[in-house]
Amino acid sequence: MSLKDRRNNDGYKNWLRVGLALLATRDGLTDVTLRAAKELHAELKDKLGDSVENCKCNPKKKQECKDCKPWRQELASYYKGNKSQIYWTNCTPSKWSKEPWEVAKGHNI
Length: 109
Prior knowledge:
The protein is mainly alpha-helical. The protein has helices spanning 3-7, 10-48, 69-78, 100-105. The protein has 4 helices and no strands. The longest helix is centred in the N-terminal third of the chain and has 39 residues, at 10-48. The radius of gyration is 20 Å and the shape is elongated. It comes from Branchiostoma lanceolatum.
């Protein structure tokens, strides 16, 4: 199919519109998500401090240390679903007090 034929094809035009709509949606959701992650991170850091920076646990091996326990408990309290479905292996606890996205990653499904 030539480029001219594609430009005149209703299905192709619709496909392009959908692609543009998905890009716009992604951009909008990214801004909202990052803003919410930063707000939650600031709230948690004010409440819990930087104690988690000394964390030595390994979420991939399901090892938990005393330094990250308050952060882990607080993060779990924000999770609305089944607590066993929190993806602790998806984040790095020692970065929770430094990086807002690390806080949000545990809730990514």
